[in-house]
Amino acid sequence: MMKQDIRVEFTSAKKPKPDPHDLAFGRIFTDHMFVMDYDADQGWYDPRIIPYQSISMDPAAMVYHYGQTVFEGLKAYVTKDQEVLLFRPEKNMERLNQSNDRLCIPLIDEELVLEGLKQLVAIDKDWIPKAEGTSLYIRPFIIATEPFLGVAASHTYKLFIILSPVGSYYKEGIKPVKIAVENEFVRAVKGGTGNAKTAGNYASSLKAQQVAEEKGFSQVLWLDGIEKKYIEEVGSMNIFFKISGEIVTPELNGSILEGITRNSVITLLKHWGLTVSERKISIDEIIQAHRDGRLEETFGTGTAAVISPVGELIWNDESLVIGSGETGEISKKLYDTITGIQKGAEADVFGWTTEVASLSETK
Amino acid sequence: MMKQDIRVEFTSAKKPKPDPHDLAFGRIFTDHMFVMDYDADQGWYDPRIIPYQSISMDPAAMVYHYGQTVFEGLKAYVTKDQEVLLFRPEKNMERLNQSNDRLCIPLIDEELVLEGLKQLVAIDKDWIPKAEGTSLYIRPFIIATEPFLGVAASHTYKLFIILSPVGSYYKEGIKPVKIAVENEFVRAVKGGTGNAKTAGNYASSLKAQQVAEEKGFSQVLWLDGIEKKYIEEVGSMNIFFKISGEIVTPELNGSILEGITRNSVITLLKHWGLTVSERKISIDEIIQAHRDGRLEETFGTGTAAVISPVGELIWNDESLVIGSGETGEISKKLYDTITGIQKGAEADVFGWTTEVASLSETK
Ligand SMILES: Cc1ncc(COP(=O)(O)O)c(C=O)c1O
Ligand SMILES: Cc1ncc(COP(=O)(O)O)c(C=O)c1O
């Protein structure tokens, strides 16, 4: 595609920044957003950074009816030297296009959108919180905008990037969670959209999540939709187990999301000389390993929590307490290493970070 | 729930009506729409009919990200006596609430929304086209509106009803279609959202539909997601087969939509003294029946086409021509009877129609 200029329109009314000690997740948004349009004649056109504002669309816009939409999630971090870093953002662009392909949405120019994302973060850099564990959450998303009630791919789309300063996932230090193995509801199945980051996967997960929360569990562990036997992933995390020293995680089978944290974890573990297998893992295998005292660690991986140790798994009425409910050694080391790289405190041997701005330079 | 008044604000700028001979599906909308809001304090509140207008929402509104949305589809018809009839609208309200339940959306007062729907159709009754086969398509839908990027049920919603005058599905008389049996992609699976009318099901169907259209087929026939063996339904229709005189249709198994036309067809067939079975039907059974010359008819059922005879099924590279590619006797009789009832030309023995307005009375 041809190189396109990104036009910038600054806001004339900057919003007050939130109290940095009182940040939640995904409720407060910055002063600007990135927008780009698509139509069949022009392709993706008019990339621009404009003041954060409402979206106004016809009630017949296809996204409201048929859910033709995809999204991404990544974060910007401030280092101790006041540099603003992104963590593997090109991976998110790549995955956005994989999702686009599955949802029949026209592919984006990954470089152009990444450039827009970087410029946006640089413009709103004063919004990035600096305290331990805080960051700027970045949400690119695409929606089908054609006002048409037929079930077909839209002929027009809009891409947005919005930014939200977010608090620490672990307010009192990294803490293991309780996760329920889901027996009734199914998130995704081979041939469906499980490996795309698209709205419907999350809509279909709400019911199971609600039931789990009522019972005091933080998330559900999904099993495969075909045999309800093989482990897939958690709400918005991939999952890893350490069994008799071997680290295992479900293979990419078409129905789980290919997490970027998952990929970073596998790379790091191998780099440390540990054995990692991507393969089918049945829930029976996990239960048996637990009974035999061989289930040493369990943890989830995802952008929000980075590493989320699992202290207890609930399967029907059976409770499997893992590692006395404490954070395991590997979980801790992965968490420290990845957050260290993200915050510029650990050597970035894999070239995972990209600097987009500095808070110390006078703009 | 308490009875609520529906407030009405008329448009001051009526739009020109479309050429009745040139109506497509779902591209033109009438002068007004019904809207109602939900929040946790007030429940569903402020039901109102207002001028048709854009929806303006925060870019973080949950529907854009997590697809928490449901919809319905039904039609209003004009009889030869100029009466406006709805066909089993209470069934659509019931199904909307079933979908709400699956998607963790607060239930609606079915009577209130049906009352709003009727008033809306009455107000925009001049938009209902009168020619053979034309009708007014009615689209109720609910979207999650809370500006929040966490994966959870929204705390606020909007319900809309919009209206679209639509042309005849069969411009040159009822005509059999070619349908491809889908082998790769899956629409829904038990434990998922297949039996709810929600966005994600349609988003996930686009890819298969696109491939089928490129090959010259009008729709795909979905198989179950578990064994890829049992017949489920077509894009937006349920499916029926007549084999050696017996009429069969897939049972309601949790992954197919419970079509209202399907229900009407079963009722009519039984009323006529025919045998109808709701059961599992494997694709092998259909192929074998065809080879043995026992597959007498195949047809889809849905609000859009009412009855859509299938003239040819494609399974891998095998083509199954059904009834020499002509419309079968049962298909024809069902089509004539149901459209007759809808248009007030046939006796409505089951009490399926509801009058909402008359075009002859001076308003
Ligand atoms: C369903 C699902 N699985 C896994 C992940 C983890 O992916 P990542 O590590 O790229 O954040 C996410 C979150 O993005 C997700 O939504
Ligand atoms: C997936 C699906 N199946 C079946 C149907 C047929 O249902 P109905 O007869 O109520 O229109 C529809 C259309 O509403 C549909 O979307």
UniProtKB/TrEMBL annotation, chains A, B:
Protein name listed in UniProt: Branched-chain-amino-acid aminotransferase
Annotated SUPFAM superfamilies: D-aminoacid aminotransferase-like PLP-dependent enzymes
NCBIfam families: ilvE_II, PRK13357.1
The organism of origin for this protein: Bacillus velezensis (strain DSM 23117 / BGSC 10A6 / LMG 26770 / FZB42)
Residue stretches in coiled coil: none
Reactions listed under catalytic activity: L-valine + 2-oxoglutarate = 3-methyl-2-oxobutanoate + L-glutamate; L-isoleucine + 2-oxoglutarate = (S)-3-methyl-2-oxopentanoate + L-glutamate; L-leucine + 2-oxoglutarate = 4-methyl-2-oxopentanoate + L-glutamate
InterPro entries documented for this protein: Aminotrans_IV, Aminotrans_IV_CS, Aminotransferase-like, B_amino_transII, BCAT-like_C, BCAT-like_N, BCAT_family
Positions of post-translational N6-(pyridoxal phosphate)lysine modification: K197
CDD domains (UniProt xref): BCAT_beta_family (cd01557)
Pathway field: Amino-acid biosynthesis; L-valine biosynthesis; L-valine from pyruvate: step 4/4; Amino-acid biosynthesis; L-leucine biosynthesis; L-leucine from 3-methyl-2-oxobutanoate: step 4/4; Amino-acid biosynthesis; L-isoleucine biosynthesis; L-isoleucine from 2-oxobutanoate: step 4/4
Family, per entry: Belongs to the class-IV pyridoxal-phosphate-dependent aminotransferase family.
EC number: 2.6.1.42
Co-factor(s): pyridoxal 5'-phosphate
PANTHER family for the chain: BRANCHED-CHAIN-AMINO-ACID AMINOTRANSFERASE, SUBGROUP IIII AMINOTRANSFERASE
Key words of the record: Amino-acid biosynthesis, Aminotransferase, Branched-chain amino acid biosynthesis, Pyridoxal phosphate, Transferase
GO molecular function, one term: L-isoleucine-2-oxoglutarate transaminase activity
GO BP annotations, alphabetical order: isoleucine biosynthetic process; L-leucine biosynthetic process; L-valine biosynthetic process
